[in-house]
Specification:
Two copies of one chain form a homodimer. By secondary structure, chain A is an alpha+beta fold. Chain A is built from 17 helices and 32 strands. Chain A is about 30% helix and about 25% strand.
Chain lengths: ~750, ~750
């Protein structure tokens, strides 16, 4: 998708108006060449404008998705405001009653405020007013939250952490904006002095570290303070929000936009936190655009906010985000943050591909942008959103490694996620050069994600479990090489943040997407280099399609090491081409630390030199075979997660580990091949057996050649040059079975018949 | 659903016509009072009639589901018949190439025959003719199949077992009927003498044991022979098919209808084999109805064929069959056998509820009945199919125990399956009085089903795995009491078939469905009695709904025993109300035999006397808490399947086992309570904790009283009388906490406030 090169369809809006001096709305609408020009000088004018409200009031009188959503939301709000206002004394941590109640309150105030604008029924405004007045009574009396976790996260007052307090204010400042015109001066004074000014002070000058932090907590806080500044007419707060408390530009929203995203809009912590961070970025940007359009915030850094929204979509497969780093795996594109992001992006760009995503999100927002989306969906204007193969350069300069996505369609969407990315701060996992594979909607080679049951009190208070550190973050929990049973960077976040892999190349042609990366700093004295290629062979006459992933992982050192390469597979083990020595009556634990203490050793094998194959069956009904080249000394270890897990916190998932011991250099070469179908419902099984008959790997100079031989003596040779710097017109040649082959650039796939 | 009391809408058809003497179709259609009367004296007239064909030829000219299906099927058939005819020499067993090819051939002949009737394009008929001629060349030369498994199953010639041969003939006899009018006398003679007469002889007089067997193999065989008899005009074969080889009525189709189904249409082997058996029952019945309507086959035994179709639907939850006995768990209502059954039943009854099922099946058949379904769905005539709470009496008299289904809707469909059913022959599991629970579309308390990877060669040739006997059939693999670590009936099928539980009662009122059953023969000297109740409390003002299952399992003996009651739960363990002694670094195996050798012992506990609770989280996002009354001596054992499984054949599922040792009598009392929601996508968790605060159980005389106390000192008392024979107006009373309570009949739920 390339909606950044389009002229942004930004409405022209007058400079920041003094609308808080007035409670009378003056709305002038005129249509000039199809562009609506709205002049609003009163409430609402923070994120939504009076012009938006006019359109929405009209839309709820016409049949369509927007009206249906309005009716449903109104019923929900009506039911809630029929209950007494409940503003409990803060007591519980995340997931607990008072925590959830205060969360519900801000959402309810926002929703009721919007109902007031849409229906002009004063009851809604009164409800919000009364709740705000209750908060204004309570807030000045509050000490720090009793469940605060000192030293770990900044404490809040309404909530255990100030992050939630900022979130509360992002919504509540909007709710206030929505009902502002209904309030008298005394009410405004009480609410502003009793609530908004103290909470802004608490979040800004009283918490300089969080406020100035270039981090998503900082984004929520600056957005909350800046938005409140617009509503209260405190432009100084806005300046602080944009440039940091001292307005030097070393903190604040703009440097967050500069630092936290790569030039392509990738967020350093990964998609799970990217979507979380998206909401304050998008919402505050929208507020800036509404109040100070001359700042051209959506054009800032070549349209970084819109790029970030688009990148968040690209970072998904079958509606779910790629679960790298600390990530709850069921989070996907229907998350409210991205619903909001897509609506705002569509409002600005009118890109029809966004409607495809909006349709899948299946949630209409009662906002001006939500209306635009709803009306476009009513008209069925959506076009397929284009998911791409892309390497997202990491870091603010885009040069600190990359997160690589490879995609192709072979009777269904396939994706390889390759992660030569930077550490991604405290939520990052130690999984340099790891990969994941997806096919027909399912995870095939998987990542554990975070060890956490969000908000489930019985599971460590709903926080990240201890096993998140002892298992999920450790290298062995991922699909990358572990040296001497130690974790990358010895599990030091500081060291991880200070180092990153190098992306050597990312290229593609019609049938192949290929990428290579390396890192020398994950282990002292050991160089790791991995090349992954996602390949689709030309369709056979029979209509049969063949695809596979080639994986060449090279570890080199001057000293001898143990190299482990795990494959965390999803499915049921069907067969192995070698004999298994399975533990029958007692399961030992695989290791002592760095995640190994959580693995049961279920079986092991030492296949003879040559081709070794492991086949499993995924829930999607397909078979997957991992074919590896064995040297007769490498062993295979089959594991299950679950040892040293006294409270059953971990999911009992399976892996096999390719282990080479006492070796200076070792190259793991393997091919993952989807095949066949198991259909017990219709009672047929086809192609349950791999079609690969031989694998070989040769390296001469900088040229790697992987031979994959199929039935009928047909072989494919994947040749690539992964040297650090080559010319774009580099000419390469190699000899294979006595014949000379030549290719230009980085790679080529040859088909040969023996 | 009660479509059996309706007058069946059977077409009047002339007695068996001598249509094989003629190749000219004479079709007279007249409309009398809305009833179509078809007079057909030629091909087709086995299952489909000339009148059906006239309707279908008209329908493929009109827009609708039928036409769309026709176009798709035609494209598929055209593609297949463009290839050369392939009739390979039989060589492979199930799942192998020649096996699958001969299966494809019969389906293709049937489809091409139907295309001939629909399009009148002679190419289709020629293709079928040529394939039949090829088979006619081959068949007389065939020895018994090389992969036959002697002593186990009757061998075939085209296939490894005669069952497949019969299936082949059920389809091929129809294909022949469909193209009969296109053949000359010489062709017919060759096909009939070279193919049909030899195969009929092989399946009937040469295999008297299978032919006369009252078993689904017998049904396929008699259907195949009888249908071929109609097409070839060999009424003697039909007589043999109906009454056994000696026509005594001791074998044959009619005694199969008498013996294999209960009066309510439940098939002794359970739903997985019921749907499998359904096809020959329904298809042969349809052929009898077409050719000899005076037999009134669909009225036979009070409409047993239609009852069997309906029972098959009732035996499903969320589109999948309850997986009791040997069952592949992904089999459900969209299976072709039930698609066919629903179409035939709809053709006869026009019951709109069947259209609801047909819609979910999402497959239109190119048959006369398929057309009726398609046209009704085009008109959106479907009405919700009514799934009921029902006790299916087992055995031909319906008195050999029962299979009990309890259902209710509590924000989603819930179901309890309770199995005081008979053994169900060789595919039966040793699981007397076991139960399963389903909620919001998912299994919560589950049954393993069969240990089998259907047709996956690498998994024991795709047959039932050895672990099907060593694990899946064993009692410990189910949710019922195991005495002294031994399996019911000592795993003797013969003993199992000779004994069955007694259904004591099955009753329901607005909020409760309750059933009780007992068995004294599963273990010598031990009586087992279980009562299960599915309960929905009246909705609270807040709209909150509460439901639970009460389980009272009483084991009594003169001698001391060890009693184990497992709960095979689906989900992730969240919390226990007692401390777990978890195996951290080594997993031992739980036992030595009878299935125990496959269980890893993960943790154990000995909760103190009183309430003990175990909570897990299912993939459906709900929490489930098992609350049990503990006596301080009973222990809890947490297990995972997977020990002694050298080839990774078993799924690694979890259970906990309530174990009471050295006891003559013991009553397990527990309550399963669905609650709350875990929604990591929308980031909320509610009611993750059970609302039950106390459980008690009292028994005086025949009255059991289970007290379930919730917050706020609200208690519910479930009182029931499970004595073997009571009067329908039985008056019961009991004293609880000093107060006297009274109820009539079997049970009552009292609400009290302490």
């Amino acid at each position: 998708m390339n909606f950044f090169n389009k002229t942004l369809c930004l409405s022209s809006v007058l400079p920041l108006s003094k609308r808080w001096l007035s409670t009378i709305a003056i709305v002038i609408l005129s249509s000039v060449g199809g562009n609506q020009i709205a002049m609003a000088s009163t409430s609402p004018n923070l994120v939504e404008t009076a012009a938006d409200v006019v359109s929405m009031r009209s839309a709820i009188k016409q049949e369509g998705q927007f009206k249906r959503t309005f009716i449903a939301n109104k019923a929900s709000v009506d039911k809630q405001i029929a209950q007494a206002i409940t503003v409990p004394m803060p007591k519980d941590g995340g997931g607990g009653y008072t925590h959830e109640r205060h969360k519900k309150n801000y959402k309810l105030m926002y929703d009721a405020g919007m109902m007031y604008q849409l229906t002009q029924d004063a009851n809604y405004a009164s409800y919000v007013r009364d709740m705000l007045l209750t908060y204004a009574d309570l807030y000045p009396t509050l000490p720090l939250h009793p469940k605060r976790k000192m030293g770990k996260q900044n404490p809040g007052k309404l909530f255990w952490q100030s992050l939630n307090e900022a979130m509360w204010l992002v919504y509540t400042s909007q709710a206030y904006d929505l009902i502002l015109s209904s309030l008298n001066a005394a009410e405004k004074e009480k609410i502003e002095n009793g609530l908004f000014r103290p909470i802004v002070k608490f979040l800004s000058v009283d918490s300089p570290e969080t406020f100035n932090k270039v981090h998503n907590h900082g984004t929520w806080t600056t957005a909350a303070v800046g938005m409140t500044g617009y509503v209260l007419g405190e432009l100084d707060w806005v300046e602080q929000a944009l440039y940091g408390l001292d307005k030097s530009g070393k903190g604040g929203f703009l440097i967050q936009l500069d630092e936290l995203f790569s030039p392509q809009g990738y967020y350093n912590e990964g998609p799970y936190y990217q979507r979380f961070a998206l909401l304050p970025f998008v919402t505050f940007a929208k507020a800036i655009q509404t109040n100070q359009p001359t700042r051209k915030i959506f054009e800032y850094r070549d349209g970084i906010v819109l790029k970030a929204i688009d990148a968040t979509i690209q970072l998904s497969y079958n509606k779910l985000f790629f679960p790298i780093n600390d990530a709850i795996k069921s989070k996907g594109i229907d998350t409210i943050e991205l619903v909001n992001g897509v609506a705002v992006a569509y409002g600005l760009t009118k890109h029809a591909g966004l409607l495809d995503i909006a349709k899948q999100q299946n949630q209409i927002l009662l906002t001006g942008d939500g209306l635009k989306v709803a009306q476009a969906l009513d008209k069925k204007l959506e076009q397929p959103y284009e998911f791409k193969s892309v390497a997202f350069g990491d870091g603010n300069d885009g040069k600190q490694g990359a997160l690589v996505i490879m995609r192709q369609n072979v009777g269904g969407e396939q994706a390889v996620l390759f992660k030569p990315a930077a550490q991604g701060l405290g939520h990052g996992h130690f999984d340099k050069l790891t990969w994941q594979f997806y096919d027909r909607g399912e995870e095939i080679v998987s990542d554990y994600g975070a060890a956490r049951f969000l908000n489930v009190e019985a599971k460590y208070g709903g926080r990240y479990l201890p096993e998140n550190s002892t298992w999920a973050k450790q290298t062995i929990a991922h699909n990358t090489v572990v040296v001497d049973e130690k974790t990358h960077f010895n599990a030091s976040v500081k060291k991880g943040n200070a180092n990153h892999p190098e992306l050597l190349f990312f290229e593609k042609d019609e049938n192949i997407t290929i990428s290579s990366a390396s890192i020398d700093s994950a282990y002292k004295g050991v160089s790791l280099k991995r090349t992954l290629a996602l390949i689709k062979l030309p369709m056979k006459k029979s209509g049969e399609e063949q695809s596979f992933v080639v994986d060449v992982f090279e570890a080199t050192s001057k000293d001898k090491h143990q190299y482990d390469l795990p494959v965390h597979y999803k499915g049921h083990l069907i067969s192995t081409s070698f004999e298994l020595d399975t533990q029958l009556t007692s399961l030992p634990v695989l290791g002592k630390e760095n995640g190994y203490q959580h693995l049961w050793l279920k079986a092991q094998a030492q296949p003879k030199a040559g081709l070794s194959q492991i086949t499993w069956l995924n829930d999607n009904g397909r078979f997957y075979t991992n074919s590896s080249i064995m040297d007769g000394e490498t062993s295979l270890i089959f594991t299950q997660i679950g040892a040293n897990d006294p409270l059953f916190n971990l999911r009992n998932e399976n892996a096999f580990i390719n282990r080479k011991t006492k070796s200076k250099n070792h190259t793991f070469v393997s091919v993952l091949e989807p095949h066949g179908e198991y259909n017990p419902s219709k009672e047929f099984t086809v192609s349950a057996v791999s079609k690969i008959q031989k694998l070989s790997h040769h390296k001469a100079e900088n040229i790697d050649v992987v031979e994959i031989r199929f039935e009928g003596n047909i072989s494919y040779l994947l040749a690539f040059n992964s040297a650090e710097n080559i010319k774009s017109n580099q000419s390469n040649s190699f000899i294979f079975n006595g014949s000379t082959y030549q290719f230009d650039g980085r790679f080529k796939l040859f088909k040969i018949k023996a």
